[in-house]
Specification:
4 helices, 2 strands, binds iron/sulfur cluster, mainly alpha
Length: 122
């Protein structure tokens, strides 16, 4: 797998954006990433271009809390944003963080972010 950050970012963004028109390419990229992790271990944050806050313009949507690879990232009842972990990037992962390998979950609904923002999910 080509692990150049710019390549991974472009590949992830384009396959995520085209997942409805080309679900095979979407699944193939997820499998390629998972196979890379199986073969060589998790990406470090540096390798994955991890940032503690998702950059604009889609920071409210493209973040770890809404990524298919995240574990245990949810808002507690008090509104505290818990840290969690990731299947493919090592270390603690934060709710509003992001990396080049962000990919939406299968249940991701396009344009669901306005109602989620209204509910307080920043
Ligand atoms: S793959 Fe990246 S964006 Fe997704 S949960 Fe892991 S660190 Fe966050």
């Amino acid at each position: 797998m080509n692990t150049n950050k710019a390549y991974m970012l472009l590949k992830s963004v384009t396959t995520a954006a085209n997942r409805n028109s080309n679900p095979t390419a979407f699944q193939d990229w997820i499998t390629e990433v998972q196979n890379e992790v199986k073969a060589n271990g998790q990406f470090t944050k540096s390798m994955a271009g991890y940032l503690p806050v998702s950059p604009p313009p889609f920071f409210w949507d493209y973040k770890c809390a809404k990524c298919r690879f995240a574990y245990q990232l949810s808002l507690s009842l008090s509104g505290f944003k818990d840290d969690g972990s990731c299947q493919i990037v090592s270390g603690d992962i934060q709710h509003n963080a992001w990396c080049c390998l962000w990919m939406p979950p299968d249940a991701y609904e396009a344009f669901s972010w306005p109602s989620q923002l209204f509910e307080g999910d920043w």
